[in-house]
Amino acid sequence: MTDVVDLAPVQAGASRERSWLNHAAIFLGLMLLWEGSSHLGWLDPLFFPRPSDILVGFWRLYITQGNIWGHLGLTMAEVLAGFAAGSLLGIALALVVGMSDRIRRYMKPYVVVLEATPRIAIGPVIIAAFGFGWTSKVVIVMLVCFFAPFVNTLNGMVNADRDQLEMMRSMGASKWQVFCKLMLPDAMPEIMGGLRLAMASALGGALVAEFIASNAGMGLLINQYTGVLNMASAFVCVLTLTGLGFAIMWAMEAVDRRIVFWNDRESTAEVSKRLALAWAHRNGDLA
Amino acid sequence: MTPRIDFLSFAGRGVALTKHLAVFAALMALWEFAARFGLVDTILLPPPRQIAQGLIQLYIENREIYWHFWVTFLEALGGFLIGGGLGLILAVGSAQSPSFRRYVAPYAIALNVTPGLALTPIIIAWFGFGMSSKVALGAIVCFFPVFVNTLIGLTRTDEDTLEMFRSLGASRWQTFLKLQVPEALPITFAGCKIAITTALVGAVVAEFSQGTAGIGILMQRFAFALDMSSAIAALLSMSLLGLILFYLIEILDDLIVFWRRDRRMEAVGRRRQARWEAGLSKSRD
Amino acid sequence: MAEAILDTSREARAGSSRPAAVIRARGLSKTFGGGRIVALKEADFEVRRGEFISLVGPSGCGKSTLLRIVAGLLDHSGGTLELHGSPVTGPRNDVAMMFQKPTLLPWRTAVENVLLPAEIAGKVGPAERKRALDLLGMTGLREFAFSFPSQLSGGMQQRVALARLLQTGADLLMLDEPFGALDEFTREHLNVELARITQEVGATVLFVTHNIGEAIFLADRVFVMTPRPGQIAKIIDVPLPRPRDPSIQVTPEFNALVAQVRSTLGGH
C-alpha cells in the first residue's frame, strides 16, 4: 500500500509559489545539465537522448507522423478491458469466498503461493496458447489484475467489525441486508485499494505482453525504437506512459474520494451538505 | 538451551496440514479426471501427471534448472539490494529534511506512476545482454515500495513520544537512532516484502525480452516450443523462488521486529534478563 | 536510598534550612497566533521544595500549557519564570515530565525503558542499572523488570513511566494527567502510590488533572484554573495531614475543600 503518504507537504500562499519556482528551476537545471553533458561528450547521445531530441521526437510522433495515437489507443483498450474483466472477476470471487470461513482457510496456501509468483510470468504461456493477437494481451492483463482486488476484497470482508455485526443482527437484519448495508461498504476502502493496485499493474502487464510478442501497441513501439537505437522516440513513448500513469493515478484518487468519502474530511463535508439538501427537498421544507 | 516444544500446537498443526494435503489431493484428482474425459484441453493445460513428469525431468534428470534458478535468484536479490538500498537512503534523507523531500517527491512519484516494466527495452539497450540489465530493472521497480514505506515510518512518529524525548534533552541524532528507526522498522519490512517480489518480476520480465539464462527465459522457451508441462513446471519453480525470497525477508523481519510477536518477545526478554543479571553480579564481585 | 534518588545538592549548597522557593513565576503568560489566543494570562506563584501542587480546571484553562512552560517544552510569551533561581530557557535536567500516555518504547523491556534518560545523558554504568532496578522495585514492579510494555497493563505501564521519571534525577516533577486513561480503581491505587513515593524522595510536584477529588487528595495546595482566558483563579491550601488514606474523601473537611474549588470554578 504505497499511496497514503504526504510526499510533498503543502505550504500556504506565497511560499507555495516560491516552491513552484524552485521546482521549475531544479527541473530546468537538470535538463540543461543533461543537454550540456551530451554536447560536451560526457553522455553518448546515441544511448542517452538529448532533451532537445526528445522534444523534437514529441513533435514528430504526435503531430507530423502521428503514429503514436493508434498504438496508444490499442494499449489503452487492452488495459481497460483486462482491468475491468480481471478486477470484476477478482472482486466477485472474493465476495463469494469471503462469506465462508472454511473455503477461505483452505484457499490460503494457494493464495500465498500465488502472491509470491510474478503473475506476469504466465505471459509466455498465454501467448503460446492464444497467439500473437489482441486476445492474449487482454487475458494477460486480466490475470495480472485479478489478484490484488481478490486478496484485498477478501481481507476487507474478513475484518468486519464484530460490534457492528452484532448491532445489525440485533435489529433483525437478514444475511443479504448485512452484506449490502454493512460488509460491502465496510470493505470498500480495501476494495478500492485493490483496484488501485490492479490499475497500477495493468499498464505494466499490457506492455510486457506486447514486449513478448505483438504487432501493435506502445510496447511494440518502444521495442522497435530501442531496436534501432532511436532512443529519443523510445523516451517519448515512455514519457507518454508516465503521463498516462499520472492521469490514471488522479482518476483513481478522484474515484476513491467519491466512493470512500468518509475517510477524507473534505469529501465527508461535501457529501453531508448534499445529503442535507436532498433530505430537505424530499421533506419539502426547503424555504 | 533446548527450545521447549509445544506438543499440542504441533499436533494441531499436523491436523491442519493433513486437511490441506487432502484438499490438494482432491483437486489434483479432479483435474486429472477432467483431462481424462476431455473437459480440458490437454495441450494448453496438461494434467497433473504430465506436469509431475516435467518437474522430475527438470529437477532430477536434466538438472540444468538449478543453475537457472540460481541466476534468477541472484538477479532478483541484486536488484532488491540496490533498489532497496537507494530507497532507504533517499527516505532517510527525505525524512530529515522536508525541503529535500519536497524536491525529490515529484521525481519519485513520476518513477512510481511510470510502469517500470515499460523501461525494459531501454534498460537492455543500456546495460546489454548480461545479468546487469536484469538487476537494473529489478532495482528500478523495487525502489519505490522501500522508499515510500520507510518515509512513512520515519515521519509518522508518535507525537507524545517525540515530546518525551525532547523533555529528556535528547539530540536529533539520538531521537533518530533510538526512536524513529525502531519505530519505522515494521513498515519498512512490509515494504521490503513487496519490493523483493517485485524485483523478481523485474528480473523475469527482463529475461523474457532478452535473456540467455534464468528461469524466466527457460519458461519462455518451453512455452514457445509448446512444451506446456515443462513450462508450467518452470512456472512452479518461479513460485518457489518467489516464496524463498519472500521468506528471506520474513525471517529477518521476525528476528529484528521481535516486539510484535509474543513468543519472540518472551525469548528476548529472558535473554536480556540473563545478560543483565550476569553483568550486575560481575560488578558486585 | 530515597535521598540519593534526587539531586538535592543544589539546595544543600544554598545552605538554607527553611524550604526555599524552587519555582518562581511572575506575570507568566502565553499567547498563540501573534497574541490573538491567550492560553495563559499572567500567572503569579511560588512553589516551595517538597510541595505537591495540583492544577485543576476544565479544558482550555491553561493548566497543561503552564505545565509545559515550567518543563521548558514551551516558551512563555511574557513574565518571568525561575527554577532553582535560574531562568527557564528549555528542557533542563532538574525538571522532568510525565504524560497521559506512558510513551514507553515497545522494543525495550521495562527496565531498559527506565534506563532511557541515563542513556540519553550518556552515562550508563552498573550504578545506573542498579538504580533502575531499585526504582522499579519502588513502584512495585521488580518482577516485571524484563517484561515488555505490551505485556503490561495500562496502570503498570504508567508505573514504569514513573520509575523512568525518577531515574532522571530531577527534583521537579511535572505530571500531565498521568492516570487519566485508567479506570477509577487503578487510578485511586496509583494516587496513593504516587503520594507515598513523592513524599519519600522529597520531590516537588506539579500535577495536572480535571478531577477535583484527585487534585485535593494529592496536593498541599491546589491551583484552581479557569478558562477564557486561562488563568489561576484561586490558590487553595489543603491542610489535611499526611499520609492520606482514600477514606478521607468522605470527611466533611475534604468536601468543604471540594465545595471551595467548585465555587471558584463557578459556571465554567
Question: What are the key terms here?
Answer:
heterotrimer; B: mainly alpha; MetI-like fold; C: Rossmann fold; six-stranded mixed β-sheet; four-stranded antiparallel β-sheet; globular
If you had to describe this structure to a student in words, what would you say it looks like?
The complex is a heterotrimer of chains A (287), B (285) and C (268). Chain A has 287 residues and is mostly helical. Chain A has 11 helices and no strands. Mean pLDDT of chain A is 84; it is low at 1-5. Chain B contains 11 helices and no strands. The two termini of chain B are 26 Å apart. In chain B, 40% of the residues are buried. Chain C has 268 residues and is α/β, with parallel strands linked by helices. Chain C has a domain at 50-71 and 170-265: Rossmann fold. In chain C, 36% of the residues lie in helices and 24% in strands. Chain C contains 10 helices and 10 strands. In chain C, helix 6 (126-138) packs across helix 7 and helix 9 (212-218) packs across helix 10 (252-265). Residues 8-18 of chain C have low confidence and may be disordered. The chains are: A mainly alpha (287), B mainly alpha (285), C alpha/beta (268). Chains in contact: A-B, B-C.
In summary, what is this structure?
The complex is a heterotrimer of chains A (287), B (285) and C (268). With 285 residues, chain B is mostly helical.
Q: Based on the coordinates given, report the CATH architecture of chain B.
A: Orthogonal Bundle
Query: What is the ordering of alpha helices and beta strands of chain B?
Result: HHHHHHHHHHH
| Unreliable residue stretches of chain C | 8-18
Beta strands of chain B, count: 0
Helical content of chain B stands at: over 70%
What Rg of chain C is obtained from the alpha carbons, in whole angstroms?
18 Å
Shape of chain B: globular
Instruction: Please give the order of strands in the largest beta sheet of chain C.
Output: 6-7-8-3-9-10
Gap from first CA to last CA of chain B? 26 Å
CATH topology of chain B: MetI-like fold
SS-based class of chain C? alpha/beta
**CATH C-level class of the domain at 50-71 and 170-265 in chain C:** Alpha Beta
The gyration radius over C-alpha positions of chain B equals 25 Å
Can you give the mean pLDDT of chain C?
Answer: 89
How far apart lie the N and C ends of chain C?
Answer: 44 Å
The CATH top-level class label of chain B? Mainly Alpha
The fourth-level CATH homologous superfamily of the domain at 50-71 and 170-265 in chain C is P-loop containing nucleotide triphosphate hydrolases
Give the total of domains of chain B: 1
Main interface by residue count: A-B, 54 and 59 residues
